UniProtKB/TrEMBL annotation:
Listed SMART domains: NDK
EC numbers, comma separated: 2.7.4.6
Protein role: Major role in the synthesis of nucleoside triphosphates other than ATP. The ATP gamma phosphate is transferred to the NDP beta phosphate via a ping-pong mechanism, using a phosphorylated active-site intermediate.
InterPro entries: NDK-like_dom (IPR034907), NDK-like_dom_sf (IPR036850), Nucleoside_diP_kinase (IPR001564), Nucleoside_diP_kinase_AS (IPR023005)
Catalysed reactions, semicolon-separated: a ribonucleoside 5'-diphosphate + ATP = a ribonucleoside 5'-triphosphate + ADP; a 2'-deoxyribonucleoside 5'-diphosphate + ATP = a 2'-deoxyribonucleoside 5'-triphosphate + ADP; dZDP + ATP = dZTP + ADP
Keyword field: ATP-binding, Cytoplasm, Kinase, Magnesium, Metal-binding, Nucleotide metabolism, Nucleotide-binding, Phosphoprotein, Transferase
Entry protein name: Nucleoside diphosphate kinase
Lineage: Bacteria, Bacillati, Bacillota, Clostridia, Eubacteriales
Molecular function terms from GO: ATP binding; metal ion binding; nucleoside diphosphate kinase activity
GO biological process, one term: UTP biosynthetic process
Gene from which this protein is expressed: ndk
Keyword Kinase belongs to the record: yes
Highest taxon in the source lineage: Bacteria
UniProt family annotation: Belongs to the NDK family.
Length: 148
């Protein structure tokens, strides 16, 4: 089973979309194994988005992600990394398919509501950046046996 790191960005929190977004992953069948609200520091933001350092949008990206609280969560399940990216939709919400989270709720590429790890390696790195080991919970659900 894979785990991936997801985060309702400050625009999603401000627009009261956190519950709706978490709910989509619950309804899909993924197991939430970590969940918290936090305000990201500049240092954490620069680490998290380190791959984009030096790009023209980097400063506004860091400014935006530190502008207000985010809701960080970790889901677990089959193909969680790529399935979550599919559920999020394309980076530019205007290009994202209508049924996806970004396609349903966004217009602006700089305010695209949700972050999701783009690979297994990114997921491992981002989960450990935002969650301590003891903040991740292992448990079984009734449905675990037949959901797959
Ligand atoms: P994220 O990391 O936030 O989940 O988004 P992503 O993988 O879909 O896109 P990525 O390429 O990692 O870019 C990170 C965030 O930077 C902003 N961005 N702006 N051309 C632009 O103006 C531009 N390109 C990227 C987006 O907000 C994107 O989510
Ligand atoms: Mg990315």
């Amino acid at each position: 089973m894979e785990r991936t790191y997801l985060m309702v960005k400050p625009d999603g929190v401000q627009r009261n979309l956190a519950g709706e977004i978490i709910s989509r992953f619950e309804k899909k069948g993924f197991k939430i194994v970590g969940l918290k609200m936090l305000r990201i520091s500049r240092e954490m933001a620069e680490k998290h988005y380190g791959e984009h350092a030096g790009k023209p949008f980097f400063e506004s990206l860091v400014g935006f992600i530190t502008s207000g609280p985010v809701v960080a969560f970790v889901i677990e399940g089959k193909d969680a990394v790529s399935a979550a990216r599919d559920m999020m939709g394309a980076t530019n919400p205007l290009k994202a398919a209508p049924g996806t989270i970004r396609g349903a709720y966004g217009i602006d590429i700089g305010r695209n509501i949700i972050h999701g790890s783009d690979s297994l390696e990114s997921a491992a790195r981002e989960i450990s950046l935002f969650f301590k080991e003891e903040e991740l919970v292992e448990y079984s659900r009734e449905v675990d046996g037949w959901i797959y």
